[in-house]
Amino acid sequence: MAGNRTLTIIKPDAVSKGFTGKIIAQIMEAGFAVKAMKLMHLTEKEAGIFYEVHKERPFYGELVEFMSSGPCVPMILEKDNAVADFRKLIGATNPAEAEEGTIRALYAENVGKNAVHGSDSDENAHIEGNFFFNITEMVG
Ligand code: CMP
What we know:
Structural class: alpha+beta
Radius of gyration: 14 Å
CATH superfamily: Nucleoside diphosphate kinase-like domain
Bound molecules: adenosine-3',5'-cyclic-monophosphate
Distance between the termini: 11 Å
Order of helices and strands: EHHEHHEHHEH
Helix content: 25-40%
Strand content: 15-25%
Strand order of the largest sheet: 2-3-1-4
Oligomer: single chain
CATH class: Alpha Beta
Largest sheet: 4 strands, antiparallel
Number of helices: 7
CATH architecture: 2-Layer Sandwich
């Protein structure tokens, strides 16, 4: 039976440093199946729409600028309990607080350049997956 889905983005900091392959390997070794994946470069407008929920936050401008600064790799992942298990795999938003061995502890620079995004709910996973991928780009 199919599990739940979550949306991740390997962010521009991790892609530019060559961590994409290692991060994908760690995700797959943790039991997540890749249902959609691509390399792309978000425009400022697209990054602004994706993170619109943070529009009132003081870091919104910085976040949008960073997310549109270079290529990123969005992916839809499937696994039982995908949202919570993936957030555990990536660790706390701030890598200084992320548990040892988590993706952010291993590869993130700081709270802004934090290597990966992970959806925070099943509902947002669905919305975010549809933001990046159309039906012809997803398997299963
Ligand atoms: P992400 O999981 O992609 O969701 C929202 C992002 O906002 C978060 O990861 C961080 O990259 C970013 N963010 C959260 N707090 C801060 C902060 N204090 N300064 C800069 N960026 C932040």
